[in-house]
Amino acid sequence: MARHEEIAEELRQAIDSEQYTVGARLPSESELAARYDVARGTVRQAVAALTAEGLIGSRQGARRVVLASRRSQSFAELRSFAQWARAMGRTATGTVISSERRRATAEDAARLHLPDGAEVLYVLRVRGLDGERVLLERTVYADWIAPAVERIEPDCASVTQRLYEDTGLVFSYGEHLIDAVAAGTHDAGLLGVRRGSPLLRVRRVTTTHTGRPVEWSEDRYRPGSVSFAIHNSIGSNPLTRRPAETESD
Fold it and tell me: 171, 206 in Cβ contact below 8 A?
């Protein structure tokens, strides 16, 4: 194994073990070069590999920031769809179907801590995995981040990564509610499934490290496209059961 590959693997393990947590800055290239007794070019190669995997983000003139770890997806850990796909060696794609400004509904205002009547950005995306449509994302962005989202190209694979690169925003906390719904005519057509097919639905609110809501989203996964594993113990259980909500869909 080449030296830069060894360094990259050590950094991955350090991120996995939370020596560097999500949102934390890595040491500078010169500090890493001194630590591993190598040239800065070797460190640069190692860091480039982690950037390509979506584990860290890079901005001009700033230290690299940890965006995710490579562990299996857990609801004790926040990771975007594209970051999860890269960690699994898969290719994620995204296509915006519609994007529009609108007045916040009562639910939008409550979830995003906005005043009544505030303007939000609503975006519907189809996400793909290795060329297959697997996910519909209906995302509502708070007014303060909406302009940055609108500047992103419609086929951007990772909005999370782009927002970090463009604005320095790091998604730090998320709350998820999981259930199942039947595919309506519109969703069935976008995902290429039969009307009435069961879809795994994940509703989530994502915030900054200070707790400021950035977005809330309703994600609907195609049957058989993804599964979630929950690991818990008698002392720690990140999954909370809630009664199913009754609603017309």
Answer: yes
Give the Å distances, CA to CA, from 3 to 10, 12, 51, 119: 11, 14, 17, 51
Distances (CA, A) of 4 to 64, 65, 184: 17, 19, 50
pLDDT, one tens digit for every residue, the chain (249 residues): 799 999 999 998 888 777 888 778 899 999 999 999 999 999 999 998 888 777 888 766 677 888 766 554 444 444 678 877 776 677 889 999 999 999 999 999 999 999 988 999 999 999 998 888 999 999 999 999 999 999 999 999 889 889 988 998 888 777 778 899 999 999 999 999 999 999 999 898 999 888 899 999 999 998 877 766 555 555 555 555 555 555 544
Distance CA 72, CA 50 (A): 16
Q: What is the pTM of this model?
A: 0.66
Contact 158, 92 (CB under 8 A): yes
Write down the residue that tokens 């519909």 correspond to: 136
| Cα distances (angstroms) measured from residue 226 to each of 73, 119, 184, 190, 202 | 10, 33, 20, 17, 12
Task: Enter the DSSP assignment of 238.
Answer: -
Residues 86 and 131: their CA atoms lie apart, in Å, by 14
Let me know: does 51 contact 57? Beta carbons within 8 Å: yes
For residue 221, the cross-strand partners are 135, 200
Please, what sign has the CA dihedral across residues 6, 9, 14, 20? positive
Type of residue at 188 = A
